[in-house]
Design goal:
three-stranded antiparallel sheet, 9 strands, about 20% helix, about 160 residues, six-stranded antiparallel sheet, 2 helices, extended
């Protein structure tokens, strides 16, 4: 009897480890982030986020500031352009706050999407490529208004809540 219990326990263990080893593909609705940020896209993102036109149905605050400065590195002087993002979800318990800087070395992805607030919109996701893998994803309606937004990193996600 004990022998059969050991055999059954071993088979269950092996079957469980076999199932866990198989990869299950996940479906993501995020834009594919594979393009390096260029000057035109950096300016577009800076203007769209910098205007701070958050749709009335959203309950969050966003402040951005674009800066360009000359920095001294070991290889010589280099102009560095960054977009500082200060986000507050204004949710429960005074909201989640995220502050980070988007450099010109970031990568982005864009895709058209539908939503209930503007019909057709454009999803933009920017990944910084830093240690914590910060990212920002937002949807704009093409008229300068942000209708959805979310920021995050490896540790947490901070969505912009609806009212």
């Amino acid at each position: 009897m004990l022998r059969w219990m050991v055999i059954i326990a071993t088979l269950v263990y092996l079957a469980d480890s076999f199932v866990a080893a198989q990869e299950v593909p996940l479906v993501s609705d995020d834009p594919k982030v594979d393009k390096p940020l260029n000057t035109e896209m950096f300016d577009f993102i800076s203007k769209t986020l910098g205007a701070g036109k958050i749709a009335p149905h959203m309950n969050c605050t966003l402040k951005t500031r674009s800066s360009r400065e000359l920095r001294k590195f070991s290889g010589g002087d280099q102009w560095v352009e960054v977009l500082e993002v200060n986000f507050n979800s204004n949710g429960f318990d005074s909201g989640l706050k995220m502050n980070f800087k988007i450099p010109m070395t970031a990568k982005y992805g864009v895709r058209k999407s539908t939503n209930q607030w503007s019909g057709l919109g454009e999803d933009i996701k920017v990944e910084l490529g830093d240690y914590y893998e910060h990212w920002i994803k937002f949807t704009h309606d093409g008229r300068g208004q942000i209708v959805q937004m979310m920021t995050g990193n490896n540790l947490r996600v901070a969505p912009c809540y609806s009212r």
